[in-house]
Request: fold
Amino acid sequence: MTLQQQIRANRRRTAFVVFAFVVLIVVFAAASAVFVGRTGAIGLLAFGLAYGVFAWWNAGRMIGSLTHATPLQKSDDPDLYRLVENVSIAAGLPVTPPVYLVDDPAPNAFAAGSRPSTVYVGVTSGLRRLMPTRELEAVLAHEIAHIRNRDVRLMTLAAVLVGVIAMLSDFAFRMAFFGGRGGRDRNPLQIVAAIVALVLAPIAALLLQMALSRRREFLADADAAAILNDPEAMALALRRLQLDPSEVAYADRATAHLFIESPTRSVKGAGNFLAGLFQTHPPLEDRIRALEEAGGFRLEALPGPA
Amino acid sequence: MTWALVIGVVIVVLLLAGVYLYNRIVRLRNEVDTGWSNIDVQLKRRNDLIPNLVEAVKGYAAHERGVFEEVTRARAAMAQASTPGEAGAADSFLEQALGRLFAVAEAYPDLKASTNFLQLQSDLTDTEDKIAAARRYYNSTVQAYNTAIQTFPSLLFAGAAGFRAREFFAAEADDRAPVAVSFPS
Reply:
């Protein structure tokens, strides 16, 4: 799949996510009309859409605060910045994205931002400490590849819009059980609202899954290997991530798919079906094998010390 | 009547395909140009660093005139190179000259300890890395562009439309190895 094909596919997926979001908001507002009246429904519709636009506009910042990422100045870590600059040049990005640091011992990295001017690369302090330069460069190239093929825009959009739907679903749920016109007998409309709330969240999760290509991590790995002309470095970096059992503290369902490897080992409090539904990343073992096949090498079982 | 319609449809389809292929080649050519200007930025940056570097070394090793002249000549050749092929040749010449300059610097501990020299050395390493990165991108865009104009069906009109194959920039055996500017302690 060439870069142009990836970009086109991501543009289609992005359009689909926006369309599905609008449809969900409209359905939600219409369903709530019986409950809050026509004016209320229009208000909800307007609020949902406006909040979606707002979230889209501020998506990078919202994800930054969700993951506790703070901007890193060039003087704080010139070596890391140089690596990001070099990788951006090698990838042909018009501008070098800024770097954000997440103070977390678990090694991981992500990229976020809805517009070219707000896109950034986030790395955890654990990644910075654990990775030797060659592998760190590969991880950065992986994130830059996501930026270049517009994965980041799509994933950021999916994260914030699913967040909006989750919030509305929560809102409907509260209305169903605590709102209403009082009295002890439960209004049947409240039950409708409860059902809407219960149905909406899984739909949002499905939407997220449909938006995400299962191949996107493989493609970003392959692109990173091509950018650096070094598939082994990417495979070594993935092996190092695989060997580290720690989890990123501030990552949840909404942001998990942004990371280079799944930031949590298992989704807590979900059954097997839901766990499968929320599986955001292919197993690292498969990704390493794909790189080995493409590059024609075999990794030792363990990488050398950093 | 039917025949006219069929011929008309065929012409329209061919025209659309032609427009698509033409635009694709133009896009690829623009990427090559962008790739080249990325290299150019870094080459200029390096060319601006070199006089300072030569001055810094001169301050400690004024008598090593041969090396300075060589670096200056190589730098001038680099500045005059107009095509990627020429620039590539000048580039390997300049890297050799810089390698010799650093080998000379090796013999002067005071020079090696000076912050000015260390800063210049680190800037030069950084620029060399960026040239290598820009070269990888540029060469990949040239590869894509040349393949596009040399394969069917674009092949049929690319030459007539003025699309010429582009040169690679210094296809060295190992483009990962930058100039050796680090010293074993």
Notes: Confidence is low (pLDDT under 50) at residues 267-272 of chain A. Chain A has two domains: 3-61+154-211, 69-151+214-295. Chain A is about 65% helix and 5% strand. Chain A touches chain B at residues 82, 85-87, 89-92, 226-230 (CB under 8 Å).
